[in-house]
Amino acid sequence: MFGQDEDDVGVLSATGVAPADEVVYRALLERPEATPAELAGALGESREQVNRALDRLRSQGLASRLSGRRRRFAATDPEAALDVLVRARATELDDVRRAVVGFAEVFRAAKDATGAAETVEIVTGRHALGEWFVRLQHGVKHEMMVLDRPPYALAAANPVEPVSLAQGVHWRAVYTPESLEMTGAATEIRQLKEMGEEARVLPDFPLKLAIADRRIGLLPLSLDLATTQVAVVRPSTLLDALIDLFESYWAAATPLDSDRTATSGDSPSEDDATLLTLLVTGLKDDAIARQLGLSTRTMRRRTRRLYELLDASNRFQAGVQAARRGWI
Question: Of 37, 147, 174, 304, which is least surrounded by CB within 10 A?
Answer without folding.
Answer: 304
